[in-house]
Write a structure and sequence with these properties.
Layout lengths: L1 E6 L5 E9 L3 H16 L3 H8 L8 H11 L5 E8 L19 E6 L8 E9 L15 E7 L3 E2 L14 E2 L3 H22 E3 L6 E3 L8 H21 L12 H12 L11 H4 L2 H23 L9 H22 L2 H12 L3 H10 L2 H15 L5 H4 L4 H18 L7 H26 L6 H36 L13 H28 L4 E2 L5 E2 L10 H12 L11 H10 L1
Antiparallel strand pairs: 1-2, 3-4, 3-5, 5-6, 7-8, 9-10, 11-12
Helix pairs in contact: 1-3, 4-5, 8-10, 8-11, 9-12, 10-11, 14-16, 16-17, 18-19
InterPro entries: Dynein_heavy_tail (IPR013594)
Pfam families: DHC_N1
Protein name: Dynein heavy chain
Length: about 575
């Protein structure tokens, strides 16, 4: 394929007009097949059946490739892996004995999900057009695997912990979150740590803890996006209730809409209204509404499990589901159904329906729960990039709690469980942030500064939690509820204990270092990463300061924020002992 570039908008060639040789479609198709082999474990037989058999002799894959090559707007194509049986019209014939080991592949410019889609590879074009003579892989194209849905392994096998049918559950939200957390985030951080200056001679290091920098803002937005996807993945939301209507009622509603009339029983033929079979069917449908509505009304969750965001999202989604259900129950289809039952001496079902499904009362109660849940500032805590942001997030959370809790019907016991989950979120956020700081590699003065900042967060929590305790006691007194102890398990306290322990250890370590200087008359200076250098003094057999430095090199490799066990303590004791 040859194309002229440099053409002006008037149709007159520019002086810089050149003939550019574009990649042949067969080269792109060959590249796609190679990608399928490497990333999707595609077999030659499957690829041949998909793209070269007589049943696939149409020009569709070639046409997609041609547009992808020549059109600047065509920025991506999708290689879709499907299980046999998804599209009988387009799939090749296959030996039934091989069906469990075979897949079918398609190339398309648009991504469309289907139940039999196993995985997708997005092939993204870096530049406007694909040019011949330039390597495709890496320079002009990049491929990303996008697992979709519950991917079935090609060879069915049971894996401990997985579903017994051998399927590997992988939701789209999980895939997106994994790409953001394990690929995009680290890539962004690594790229931004050192950026070449315009002169290409000096590398500039970007401080992403500086809230004023554009890079810091972008990183925070990326963290918030990752957090939002994680919430979608983890949400324990309440499903909407969908209630069926009788076909005769649906037809009546359609007729009323077409004739621009209000729905009415008068639009239903008297033959139906006097038909016992129709009335029985209508009665059965109304009975069938009761159970799913009761399931929604009774829906709850254990507040001590999951995350704080799951608790918040549960009640918000239940309120939405109840509100939509309440609107549906007032719709003409439902009211006319119940009116017909009343008018035909079948009021028992209609009365039972109204008694057994207290939708409005439940909605009112849940809405008062949601006074506390709406605009709950949890994201600010989990997405904090600095210790200062974390402290501010703790203040915002307790300010919201102490302000909204008084007017909410949310039980005190659930509120305490919610705060425990928030404490766990704080613990995880601190672990993530402090691990990036590499505390054991900091010199002692820098470590003390970090310890002071973290201690400020703990003190802020304690101060605002005490205020919540007073609010909770006041709420219990006003409601006349039975007294319950206002206590929580502060999960983040283990981080405080751990850092206090390390501060004590490093203080003793620093004191010993200073003592060695005085005893041996060493002239030492300590570098930023904790290593030591010596000058003008020689020891015949042993250099105590050097030995101490080597011992500390072992200690600083330990993950001091791993609070799942006390292995770090054993390592410290083993080195110092």
């Amino acid at each position: 394929m040859t194309e002229v570039v440099g053409q002006s908008t008037t149709g007159i060639p520019d002086s810089g007009m050149l003939d550019v040789e574009l990649v042949d479609p067969s080269v792109v198709l060959n590249y796609v097949c190679n990608v399928a082999k490497v990333l999707l474990a595609a077999s030659d037989d499957d690829l041949n059946r998909s793209f070269t058999d007589k049943q696939r002799s149409n020009s569709f894959p070639k046409k997609v490739c041609e547009e992808f090559i020549a059109e600047p707007e065509a920025t991506a194509i999708f290689l879709v892996k499907k299980s046999i049986g998804s599209s009988e019209e387009t799939q090749p014939e296959i030996d039934p004995e091989q069906i469990n080991l075979s897949f079918f592949y398609e190339i398309d410019a648009k991504l469309q999900q289907s139940p039999d889609t196993q995985a997708v590879v997005a092939i993204i074009k870096k530049n406007g057009k694909l040019r011949s003579g330039i390597i495709l892989d890496g320079l002009q194209l990049q491929a990303i695997v996008l697992p979709i849905g519950a991917a079935k392994s090609s060879v069915q096998q049971t894996v401990p912990g997985d579903d017994q049918d051998g399927s590997i559950q992988s939701s789209p939200f999980e895939v997106i979150h994994s790409i953001l957390h394990f690929a995009v985030g680290p890539y962004f951080d690594a790229f931004c740590k050192t950026i070449q200056s315009p002169s290409h001679s000096v590398s500039a290091t970007i401080d992403m803890t500086d809230e004023r920098s554009a890079t810091s803002v972008a990183r925070k937005k990326l963290t918030e996006l990752e957090l939002s996807i994680a919430h979608l993945q983890q949400n324990n939301e309440v499903n909407e209730v969908v209630l069926p209507l009788h076909p005769v009622i649906e037809h009546m509603l359609q007729t009323a809409a077409q004739e621009s009339r209000d729905p009415s029983i008068d639009l239903i033929s008297s033959e139906y209204l006097e038909n016992n079979q129709f009335l029985t069917s209508l009665q059965d449908i109304a009975k069938g509404w009761i159970k799913p509505i009761q399931v929604l009304i009774d829906a709850t969750r254990d507040p001590k499990t999951g995350t704080a965001m799951q608790e918040v999202n549960f009640w918000l989604s239940k309120e939405i589901a109840l509100r939509n259900l309440a609107l549906f129950m007032k719709s003409p289809g439902v009211t006319i159904t119940l009116d017909i039952l009343y008018n035909n001496n079948r009021a028992g079902v209609a009365n039972r329906f109204r008694v057994d499904t207290p939708i409005e009362r439940t909605l009112e109660s849940v809405s008062k729960y949601c006074q506390l849940m709406k605009d709950f500032p949890l994201d600010e805590l989990v997405s904090a990039l600095t210790l200062g942001d974390m402290k501010l997030a703790v203040i915002q959370i307790f300010t919201h709690l102490n302000k909204k809790f008084r007017g909410s019907l949310y039980p005190v016991s659930r509120a305490l469980a919610l705060i425990e989950n928030i404490s766990n979120d704080l613990k995880l956020a601190l672990q993530s942030l402090l691990r990036e700081r590499k505390l054991m590699y900091l010199d002692f003065s820098a470590f003390k500064e970090q310890h002071v900042e973290v201690t400020t967060i703990f003190n802020t929590w304690d101060e605002h939690y005490k205020e919540f305790v007073n609010v909770a006691r006041d709420v219990i007194r006003k409601k006349g509820d039975a007294f319950i102890p206002i206590r929580i398990t502060a999960h983040h306290a283990v981080i405080k204990e751990r850092l206090d322990y390390i501060l004590d250890f490093r203080a003793k370590h620093d004191q010993m270092y200073q003592t060695l200087i005085k005893v041996f008359g060493k002239q030492l200076k300590r570098s930023v990463n904790g290593d030591f250098t010596e000058a003008n003094v020689e020891f015949v057999d042993l250099n105590p300061v050097e030995e101490m430095s080597l011992a500390y090199d072992i200690v600083k490799q330990v993950d001091i924020l791993d609070i799942s066990s006390s292995k770090y303590e054993l390592a410290v004791i083993g080195v110092l002992g």
